[in-house]
Amino acid sequence: MKQVAVRNIRLCTKDCLCLYVCPTGATDTENSIIDTTKCTGCKSCADACPNGAISMVPLSYPAQQKKQDDVIAILNAVSYRKMQAETIANQIACQAGNQTVQPLMQAIARSSRLIAEDLIREAGYMLPQSANAQDFLQGLLTNPPDDFPTEIVTELLTRIPCNETKEGIIQ
Amino acid sequence: MKYICVICGFVYDEAKEPVLFSALPDTWICPVCGARKNNFHAEEDKKKPQEAHTIYETDLQPLSTAQLSALCSNLARGCEKQYKFRESELYTQLSEYFLRHTPQEPEASLDRITALLKEDLNEGYKTIHRIASDVGDRGALRVCVWGEKVTRILHDLMERYATEGEQFLADTNIWVCSICGFVYVGNTAPMLCPVCKVPDWKFEKIEGGIGL
């Protein structure tokens, strides 16, 4: 599986061993982002980095885990309420002005969103490359409302190829 | 006797503490995660899993507009983790589109939020746990563990706001773990998230004041 190196700038302690070992100069950039067009995936930089700041990211991903309908249904039932809580918390925060309830509502909204995202991820939307995510995007292009940004969806569909076939076999 | 916090696992050991657990005031909170006293159970207590009563539809319902927003912000994170920054930005824009089109909730009250949290604790998470255990879905079980603990702390914060009023939020900060959603009230973020154990720099400070 073809991989490329990526650097986590948060962990990078500027020991710069990656510069010494990279055979193509891909790690030597002004913005600290490894040049993926030059990276050959040789992994030398990741092995040399004393702080574990470089990891290898695959260019293609395996198919995500299949989920059963009853699991999806209950996860969706809970994420539905989490998003209701977010909506209510946002409404209260908007009306609250500078009262102390406002930051509490913002925290509730933020937290509810994170939990909902986690539930939805487990309900079949783990990978952007999955057939589910692709079907979701395709569905948005059928009879969209007038103000719907279809160009965003088309760009996403072009940029992220699907990694599953109808039979669930990885391409 | 030892009492254990269900959210972070902190142990209140009566042998080492000056006060018996039962003598602690109701306003006492867990020194690690801020959970209220009723989230502690005695070490000897056998865990009694209670059955959920609500029967949920297992037919797949279409997602609400707000859920579509969360679906897109989730995929934006997924793209970000894969270092696909343009794709992440596009999904974020879609997420914002759905957020803007989310209809207002007719009953926007603090009580309604508390009721939703209570329903998740009493029914939702128990049902996820039961179904996910039956089919051996470990991913769904993991969501259940984090989500239930975070829901519990949110419920606690709502109850504290209802009983203690505004002063428990005065002259302090509110922090949200950007990974699991755990909310912490205190001057600085905890060294490790009590729920998902990520380091303090994964916490975001709620700045407040500005519109959403």
| Strand numbers in spatial order across the main sheet of chain B | 2-1-3
Largest sheet of chain A: 2 strands, antiparallel
Structural class by SSE content of chain A: mainly alpha
- Write the H/E string of chain A, N to C: EHHEHHHH
How would a crystallographer describe the biggest sheet of chain B? 3 strands, antiparallel
- Which class of secondary structure composition applies to the elements of chain B? mainly alpha
CATH class of the largest domain in chain A: Alpha Beta
Q: What ranges of chain A have pLDDT less than 50 throughout 5 or more consecutive residues?
A: none
Rg from alpha-carbon coordinates of chain A: 21 Å
Largest interface: A-B, 72 and 82 residues
- Report the count of strand segments of chain A: 2
Helix content of chain B: 40-55%
**SS strand fraction of chain A:** 5-15%
Number of domains of chain B: 4
**First and last CA, distance of chain B:** 47 Å
N-end to C-end Cα span of chain A: 12 Å
CATH architecture of the largest domain in chain A: 2-Layer Sandwich
Helix proportion of chain A = 40-55%
Q: Could you explain how this protein is built, in words?
A:
The complex is a heterodimer of chains A (171) and B (212). Chain A has 3 domains: 3-58, Alpha-Beta Plaits (2-Layer Sandwich), CATH 3.30.70; 69-122; 127-171, no CATH class. In chain A, strands 1-2 form a two-stranded antiparallel ribbon. The longest helix of chain A has 27 residues, at 69-95. Chain A starts with a strand and ends in a 12-residue tail after the last helix. By secondary structure, chain A is mainly α. Chain A contains 6 helices and 2 strands, in the order βααβαααα. Chain B is mainly alpha-helical. Chain B has 4 domains: 1-48, Rubrerythrin, domain 2 (Single Sheet); 65-101, no CATH class; 108-168; 171-212, Rubrerythrin, domain 2 (Single Sheet), CATH 2.20.28. Helix content of chain B is 41%, strand content 9%. Chain B has 4 helices and 6 strands; from the N terminus they run βββααααβββ. Chain B has helices at residues 65-81, 85-100, 110-135, 138-164, and strands spanning 2-5, 11-13, 40-42, 174-177, 183-185, 203-205. Chain B has a 3-stranded antiparallel sheet, with no helix packed on it. A 3-stranded antiparallel sheet of chain B has the order 5-4-6. In chain B, a hairpin with a 5-residue loop joins β4 and β5. In chain B, α1 (65-81) runs antiparallel to α2 (85-100) and α3 (110-135) packs antiparallel against α4. Chain B is globular. The N and C termini of chain B lie far apart (47 Å). The model of chain B has no long low-confidence stretch (mean pLDDT 90). The interface between A and B is large, with 72 and 82 residues.
